[in-house]
Structure formats: structure tokens, C-alpha cells
Write a structure and sequence with these properties.
Helix content is about 40%, strand content about 15%. By secondary structure, the protein is α/β, with parallel strands linked by helices. The model has no long low-confidence stretch (mean pLDDT about 95).
Length: about 270
């Protein structure tokens, strides 16, 4: 059975962010991840992890100015210095939290981007990833890049697993992996089992949600249990991040995990 981490950007939002660590531990999780928590001092986050016996398994790079439409900076030409500064911040947090993975967000393309603009953004992304992977390698940190579906994030640079793996190969750094979110991948292209069999060794993190509504993974068209069995068959040793929007409360919604005997007791 895979190891599951609670994404605190999505789960336990019935309570304030800093209280979600305790809520996750009480529900039975031993690991957490989240997108952004840079508004909190790293030492506060570290204290919450320690107090609740939790492992931090993933953070994102700072997104830039969300209100202005930024969704990451790594693939934004002309903003290389901003990206370098934001990545330094992510590294500082990852080191403090003993977090072994950083998801590097590419950012979005200009509206109606043509082929030349897309190529320029992609080339910037590759250069910035090489730089970042070199910086992270010394600390044993793995970077991930994630294809995101255009319905949830219009204009995002990466949308397919093939695109992400082509960039990974071009960057050519062993500590760069692809983050496969079953929710995004199913919406964009499907055929998840074949993609897992093809690329599992180069997948650094997996996330899960139901399709199409991003609720609990056992709702909708995705057979999450068959995919979990396949991960076991293939020998996947990483984490599966629970990055979904609970339909009727986080704890009642965890019944999908009880079906596979994951929660033997609450903590």
C-alpha cells in the first residue's frame, strides 16, 4: 500500500493553517505537504511538524504575485533574478523543514502565445531548472516539475507528462523528477497505467484527487484503488499526496482510505 501525505493547502481547511498539522496527525497521517506557507516563519512550521511527529515531504517554490496572475516564475523570461531569489527562499524553507522535495512552478504563458513565445518560455524554464537543480543537489534535495490541466490553471506552461519528461531529459540533472498528479493527468490525457509503467523511475512524487470534481479520490471516473495496486506492483516507494477538496468535511471524507485499512488508529 502506498504511503499517503496530507496536503494542508487542501485538507483540514476547517481550521486555521497552523492547526492543520495537529489535525492531520490526529487523523492518522505521518506526513504532510503544502503549496505555499511562506507567510509563516520556517521555525514555526518546523515546531508544528515536530510537535505532531510529522514529516514534510513537499513544498512549492514561491508563486510570485498570485493576484497579478503569477503561477510560478521559473519559465518567465526576464524574471530570472526574481526566480533565483524565490528559489533561495524555497531552499531555506526546505532545509529548515528537512523537506526532500521542492516543486518548481513554471508559470503561465502570455495570452494567445505563439510558437516563438512558447519556445522562449520553455528555454527559460530549462535554464532555470539546471541552475536550481545544481543548487539543490548539494543538499540532497530533489526538484519536481508538474503538468497541470488547463481547466484549473489556464496557460500553464506544462500540461502533459510527455512534455515534462522531455524537459527533464533536456535538463539532464539526476535530482530533477516529474510530479504526476493523477487528477491533472486524467483530465488532459488519461492512460495513467501506461504512463506509470513507462516513467515510474523518473516520477518523484504522486498526487491524487477524484475526476472531474477534485473531491475524494474514490469519487468520479478514476479507479484510485487499481492505481494504488499498480504502484505496489511496480514497487513505488514515494509518497501519494492527498490533494483534493473534501466534499463534506476532511475527516468524514477519509472513509476512502479506511477501505484499504490505512487508518488503524487515530493519533
Amino acid at each position: 500500500m502506498p504511503r499517503f501525505s496530507a496536503n494542508l493547502s487542501f485538507l483540514f481547511n476547517e481550521v486555521l493553517f497552523l492547526d492543520r498539522f495537529a489535525a492531520a496527525a490526529h487523523a492518522g497521517f505521518g506526513a504532510v505537504e503544502f503549496g505555499y506557507a511562506y507567510e509563516f516563519p520556517a521555525k514555526e512550521l518546523t515546531a508544528r511538524l515536530a510537535a505532531n511527529g510529522l514529516e514534510q515531504v513537499l513544498i512549492n517554490t514561491p508563486p510570485g504575485d498570485l493576484a497579478a496572475g503569477d503561477r510560478g516564475l521559473a519559465g518567465c523570461p526576464g524574471r530570472e533574478r526574481e526566480f533565483a531569489a524565490s528559489f533561495a527562499t524555497a531552499m531555506r524553507y526546505a532545509q529548515a523543514l528537512s523537506c526532500p522535495r521542492i516543486h518548481v512552478m513554471s508559470g503561465v504563458l502570455p495570452a494567445n502565445a505563439d510558437a516563438a513565445q512558447r519556445a522562449r518560455h520553455r528555454a527559460t524554464f530549462v535554464r532555470n531548472l539546471r541552475f536550481a537543480a545544481g543548487e539543490a543537489k548539494e543538499d540532497g534535495i530533489t526538484l519536481t516539475i508538474e503538468p497541470i490541466n488547463p481547466r484549473d490553471m489556464p496557460g500553464y506552461l506544462l500540461t502533459t507528462q510527455g512534455e515534462a519528461h522531455a524537459i527533464r531529459e533536456e535538463v539532464g540533472m539526476p535530482n530533477l523528477k516529474v510530479q504526476m498528479d493523477f487528477y491533472h493527468a486524467q483530465i488532459v490525457e488519461g492512460d495513467l497505467s501506461t504512463k506509470l509503467r513507462r516513467w515510474l523511475n523518473d516520477i518523484g512524487h504522486i498526487q491524487i484527487a477524484g475526476v472531474p470534481d477534485r473531491h475524494e479520490p474514490d469519487s468520479g471516473e478514476l479507479n484510485c484503488y487499481a492505481l494504488f495496486d499498480l504502484l505496489d506492483e511496480l514497487g513505488y516507494k514515494g509518497w501519494v499526496g492527498c490533494e483534493y477538496r473534501p466534499r463534506d468535511g476532511t475527516v468524514p471524507g477519509l472513509a476512502w482510505l479506511d477501505k484499504i485499512g490505512w487508518r488503524t488508529k487515530e493519533r
